[in-house]
Write a structure and sequence with these properties.
The protein is an alpha/beta fold and about 750 residues long. The protein is built from 22 helices and 30 strands. Strand 24, helix 18 and strand 25 form a beta-alpha-beta unit. Helix 1 crosses helix 2, helix 8 runs parallel beside helix 9 and helix 19 runs antiparallel to helix 20. It is globular and about 90 Å long. The relative contact order is 0.08. The protein binds adenosine-5'-diphosphate and zinc ion (2 copies). The site of adenosine-5'-diphosphate has 15 residues, from helix 9.
């Protein structure tokens, strides 16, 4: 392999490319854009250069590239290699995860003086943009480059985009004009923690159970050994306090810590507790809402060992932290730790790899552990530490189940059961707060003709359109495609088009109708915009006398509102009816988490779960808030049906604009894999269209494979990918995903 490089110099006559040979051992590390050292000129002095192109041969007699400067340590490169193999992706993609985001932006000093700046966000869904690129609606390479950059760096300034993409301002402006990008005015918070004012707190006196957990983990820190722990305790049992004290110990020993949380912007209160204990200086925060400048600064503070505690979402596991003493993963069951985009890594597995390497403890915490994690804590692979009581002595809330079938039989067709209605009314009288949870956004989730049965689907995806009443439009939740509402059936022309299903918008309107005196606020993907953060909505709910918070999944994360005494689950069935072996697990987790929001201090809490399947064990056990009872039933089912943790599920996914090609490629892949895995214990299912068989005008097929992923199988899958891509398959993408979040 040969690289064309540009020498890093201002000398005009060197403003062209030079060919260099890429030595075998560096091949895997090099990608377009890599900084390398090359011998140059008569003196053979090493010069810095950047790779701009990689090709097979050169017409010249050429020298070797001497060194790649990724700015990464050998250990990091090794980890990148491991991730690439394990998750079937390119090494360069993994290296990107570990590199400092961006470089120091030019306008830093200006930004600090300004109170407000304009930042750039994607206006359309990236999937939709991709589609426009494929259909050549966007032709220009520079536009594509900018869009790709903004995708990874939402919140960058125009100057930053100019610097990093080397494209001119006018192209950015064109993309804004054409509605691909939008410019948003933002207050600057260079250090994301700067404007937080928080009182200091001290270590609390630990309870007996907390002390036991703390001591067990502290012992491994003292001995400098790897061990994986599961800190299993109901919400409010004091897990966070244990984390805080462990980190305190690690810091006192001049080591550092990483704590992963599902999505930090969803849990501002968690961050506050860390700041109150350790101060802002010690903490670096990494999450998706930071601008590229902010991320760069945080990354640098970590590198320079100014910040010794890293708190962040999934990718914070790659923070360039030195002298690591502990890794903690809070809410370890959360699906966000597994990346669904390439590299499709699982941060828990990466954390385990790093902890082993560093000989430090890995602490997983949850009130509703992942079934596989709990299974491993029963068979000795993970050390189980239990917290069985709430630390501040508040009681767990009372949970009631309402049978919606019964409710219908009693003539109640509204979204609120009599019980829930009465409880909301009482709460309003008592000036207490209520949270209502419904896992679907929009107004009506599905539109059908009563006359001929026609349902309105997205023209790009095989998926029902959702009606959004505030915009008075139909929207596809997969690709963002929008359409005017339909009054007559496009198929038979009748006016019997009806809107079914309930989303958060409809719930909000119904609540406003039934309780006109109540102040409500809604939190879902449609209200949490770039301007309006989760934190603002939650702060409003807390501080502005709002009675009812209505929302999707977002409302169930670890918030702590002392005045919330009632939580209503409008339809517990929505997560049960998905076609996935984790449907009951997810339902149990969500219901337990929602329930945990009620009555967190001295006021008693009440939870009402409405369901059409009240007899389902995930709902029954959630009512009792009995994880272990749930686990016993679920693990038996998993064993009988042979699902994780008793085997891995590997999905080879295909997507293509060409239906013929996708059939051909998936069939070839199937033959190849069947041969390759012949002597291994795998069950390989024939290629089939995926449950959602078209998204964004791309056909989707898949092969499901069940078995235990081994080193050998891993090699076979990697070879398969290489073989398939060596063929001429222009229009089809192939992915391999082990235990993916979604089976759709
Ligand atoms: P979890 O992380 O398990 O939800 P937290 O650590 O948030 O639990 O604890 C719940 C509440 O109990 C918090 O208000 C916390 O300050 C308090 N708390 C935790 N540990 C103790 C303790 N040992 N003594 C008194 N209060 C405690
Ligand atoms: Zn669509
Ligand atoms: Zn019709």
């Amino acid at each position: 392999m040969v690289a064309e490089v540009i020498i890093n110099t201002t000398a005009k006559k060197l403003n062209r490319t030079f060919d260099y040979n890429i030595p075998k051992e560096l091949e895997q590390l090099i990608c377009i854009g890599s900084k390398v050292l090359v011998p140059f000129g008569k003196s053979e002095r090493l010069e810095e250069a950047h790779i701009v192109k990689i090709k097979e041969n050169s017409d010249f007699e050429i020298k070797n590239i001497v060194k790649v400067e990724t700015g990464l340590t050998d250990k990091q490169i090794e980890l990148a290699n491991w991730i690439a193999k394990r998750y079937f992706c390119n090494i360069s993609e993994c290296i990107k995860l570990m590199q400092t985001p961006g470089t120091k932006s030019k306008d830093v000093s200006k930004r600090i003086q300004d109170k407000k700046i304009n930042v750039v966000y994607l206006k359309k869904d990236f999937e939709e943009i991709n589609f426009d690129i494929e259909t050549k609606k966007i032709k220009s390479e520079k536009q594509i480059k900018i869009l790709n950059f903004v995708k990874d760096n939402e919140g960058a300034t125009i100057t930053e985009i100019e610097t990093f993409t080397d494209c001119s301002r006018t192209i950015i402006k064109t993309l804004i004009k054409n509605n691909y990008l939008e410019l948003i005015e933002r207050k600057i918070e260079r250090n994301p923690l700067d404007n937080k004012k928080i009182k200091n707190t001290q270590n609390l006196q630990l309870t007996e159970e907390q002390t036991n957990a703390f001591n067990k983990i502290a012992e491994t820190i003292n001995k400098n050994t790897y061990e994986q722990f599961l800190l299993y305790g109901v919400t409010g049992s004091g897990k966070t306090e244990v984390y805080l004290q462990l980190i305190d110990k690690v810091i006192k020993e001049e080591k550092s810590a990483i704590i992963l949380v599902p999505e930090i912007s969803l849990t501002p209160q968690m961050l506050d507790r860390f700041i109150s204990r350790f101060g802002k200086e010690e903490i670096a925060v990494l999450h998706s809402k930071l601008s590229i400048g902010e991320r760069h600064d945080e990354w640098e503070r970590i590198k320079q060992e100014k910040a010794k505690i890293v708190i962040g979402a999934r990718s914070a596991i790659f923070a360039p932290i030195k002298n690591l003493g502990i890794i903690i993963i809070d809410e370890e069951h959360d699906s966000s730790y597994k990346s669904e985009a390439s590299p499709k890594y699982n941060a828990k597995e990466v954390a385990k790899k790093i902890s082993k390497e560093m000989k430090i403890p890995l602490v997983l915490g949850s009130a509703t552990p992942d079934i596989s994690t709990f299974y491993n804590s029963n068979n000795g692979k993970i050390t189980l530490l239990k917290l069985t009581k709430r630390a501040n002595k508040s009681n767990l809330p009372k949970v009631e189940i309402v049978d919606l079938k019964q409710e219908l039989a009693n003539g109640n067709r509204s979204m609120l059961s009599f019980d829930l209605y009465n409880s909301i009314e009482q709460n309003l009288k008592d000036k207490l707060q209520t949270i209502l949870f419904l896992n679907r956004r929009g107004y009506s989730t599905f539109i059908m003709c009563r006359n001929c049965g026609y349902t309105v689907k997205c023209k790009n995806c095989n998926i029902s359109m959702t009606y959004h009443s505030y915009e008075n439009k139909l929207k596809c939740h997969y690709c963002g495609y929008e359409e005017k509402i339909v009054k007559n059936c496009p198929e038979c022309g009748s006016d019997k088009i009806r809107y079914f299903g309930t989303g958060t918008q409809k719930l909000e309107q119904e609540i406003q109708k039934q309780f006109p005196q109540a102040k409500t606020i809604r939190m879902d993907v449609d209200t949490v915009t770039k301007k309006n953060s989760h934190e603002e909505i939650l702060n409003k709910f807390k501080n502005e006398n709002i009675d009812i918070l209505i929302g999707t999944q977002m409302v169930v994360k670890g918030h702590h509102f002392p005045k919330v005494t009632l939580v209503g689950v409008i339809a517990a069935d929505s997560s049960l009816n998905i076609d996935d072996y984790r449907a009951t697990e997810r339902t149990f987790q969500i219901l337990t988490q929602v329930a945990g929001r009620a009555g967190r201090e001295n006021l008693p809490g009440k939870v009402i779960i409405q369901s059409y399947n009240p007899e389902n064990f995930s709902i029954q056990d959630a009512q009792k808030q009995n994880y272990e009872q749930f686990y016993e039933k679920e693990i038996l089912l998993r064993k009988q049906l042979k699902y994780p943790p008793f085997c891995d599920i590997i999905i080879i996914g295909f997507n293509s604009i060409n239906e013929e090609e996708i059939k051909k490629v998936s069939k070839l892949t199937y033959e190849y894999i069947k041969n390759g895995l012949e002597n291994e214990e795998f069950k390989i299912f024939k290629p089939m269209p995926s449950p959602i068989d078209k998204i964004q005008n791309r056909f989707r097929w898949r092969i499901i494979i069940k078995g235990n992923m081994t080193e050998k199988a891993n090699i076979i899958f990697n070879e398969m990918l290489k073989k398939m891509y060596d063929r001429d398959i222009k229009n089809t993408k192939i992915t391999v995903d082990v235990n993916p979040n979604s089976m759709a």
